[in-house]
Every structure is written in C-alpha cells, then in structure tokens.
C-alpha cells in the first residue's frame, strides 16, 4: 500500500505514515466495528445468511487494518487511529441499529386504568396482543402483552403515553416468533376478500 501511494501518487513516505495511513486505519476500524455490531444483531435474530456474510467482511477489513499496523509498528499515530476508529465504529453501529430497527420486541404494559381503549387500538391497528387481570401492591391492574416489529415501537409508546402517562411498561428483545405475522396476514386476506367480494 505504501508503495502504491509513493510511486503512483508521489506521496512522500512521511505524509503516508503520519496522515494517510492513520486515516485509512481509522476508517477501516469504523467499518469493521459497525459491521460487527450489525452482525451480532442479525445473529440474535437468527438471520444466519446475513450474519455469515457480514462476518466475512468484518474479518477481512480487520485483517487489512491490523496488517498495516504491524507493517508500521513504530508509528504511534496508527495506534491512536485504531482506538479512535473502534470507539467511533461502536457509536456508528449503534446508530445504524437504531435506524434499521431490526427484529421484534415484546412490550408488557401494566395499568390500573382499564385498558379498553388501548386494547381497541391494538386490535384495529393489527398488533398481536394478550391481556390479563393481575394483582399488584397497588391493587388490581390490567396487563397487556404485545409483540411487534421494532420500527413500530415509537408508535406504540406514543399510544401508551396518550392512553395513560402513568402506565408502567417493560420492553425486551425477541429472538424468534412462532407463526410470524399470522394475525396480520389473516386480516389482510379478509380485506382482500371484501374488496374483491369473494364469499
């Protein structure tokens, strides 16, 4: 790599060692750590094929970056670039994960206020849910369980806030869902039948 920059681009060795190489290492680390974050998320969601492909590119980029560092072992600037790229890549990976909103979550909602309106909303907007009565230290409460795609979570939280700002809820990641989207697909099928007037 150094030969390419010096011969093809006429870059002085000092410029390559203390400016270009640290920048390349920094960018490489951002890429491989971001990919690593996404790979872990895909593993947790049982996306085997995608996780495998990401793992290949993650290790390839890492090997290229670490190889350049070993070739310039006496250059302390590359160490700083390596560590800085790792930290930045962690942040970038988290931001990407939030933006992609991969996978599903289970939300448990506990409220002393009757959850009739909340349940009506879940039913009319194709959320899969269950509801039970339970006893807490504050008395009888309604407990609503629902499993949804993460990209719909902000919608649900806004509904909970408007329904009862004092409602207590918990959110956990879900690895796998049986009969995925069965309720939604069934309702969509009914809508198509009604639209086509199929008896």
- From the spread of the alpha carbons, the general shape counts as elongated
Our count of domains comes out at: 2
Helicity level: 55-70%
* Largest sheet report: 4 strands, antiparallel
Helix-strand sequence: HHHHEHEEHEH
Instruction: Compute the separation of the termini in Å.
Output: 69 Å
Q: Please, how many helices?
A: 7
Indicate the radius of gyration in whole angstroms.
25 Å
- Structure summary, number of beta strands: 4
Draw up the topology in text.
Blueprint: H1 2-8, H2 13-44, H3 48-71, H4 76-100, E1 104-111, H5 116-124, E2 128-136, E3 139-149, H6 153-163, E4 168-174, H7 182-196
Antiparallel strand pairs: 1-3, 1-4, 2-3
Helix pairs in contact: 2-3, 2-4
Can you summarize this structure?
The chain is built from seven helices and four strands; from the N terminus they run H-H-H-H-E-H-E-E-H-E-H.
Description:
The protein has 199 residues and is α+β, with helices and mostly antiparallel strands. It has two domains: 2-100; 104-196, Alpha-Beta Plaits (2-Layer Sandwich). The chain has seven helices and four strands. It has helices at 2-8, 13-44, 48-71, 76-100, 116-124, 153-163, 182-196, and strands at residues 104-111, 128-136, 139-149, 168-174. Strands 2-3-1-4 form a four-stranded antiparallel sheet, covered by helices on one side. It is elongated and about 75 Å long.
């Amino acid at each position: 790599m150094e030969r390419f920059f010096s011969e093809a681009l006429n870059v002085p060795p000092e410029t390559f060692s203390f400016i270009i190489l640290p920048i390349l290492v920094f960018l490489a680390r951002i890429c491989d750590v971001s990919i690593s974050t996404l790979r872990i998320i895909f593993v947790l969601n049982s996306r085997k094929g995608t996780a495998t492909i990401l793992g290949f590119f993650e290790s390839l980029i890492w090997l290229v970056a670490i190889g350049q560092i070993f070739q310039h072992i006496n250059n302390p600037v590359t160490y700083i670039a390596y560590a800085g790229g790792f930290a930045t890549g962690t942040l970038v990976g988290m931001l990407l994960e939030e933006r992609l909103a991969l996978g599903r979550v289970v939300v448990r909602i506990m409220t002393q206020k009757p959850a009739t309106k909340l349940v009506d909303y879940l039913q009319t907007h194709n959320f899969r849910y269950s509801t039970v009565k339970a006893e807490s230290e504050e008395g009888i409460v309604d407990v609503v369980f629902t499993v949804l795609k993460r990209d719909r979570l902000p919608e649900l939280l806004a509904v909970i806030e408007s329904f009862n700002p004092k409602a207590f809820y918990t959110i956990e990641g879900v690895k796998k869902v049986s009969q995925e989207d069965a309720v939604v697909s069934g309702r969509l099928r009914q809508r198509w039948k009604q639209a086509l007037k199929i008896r």
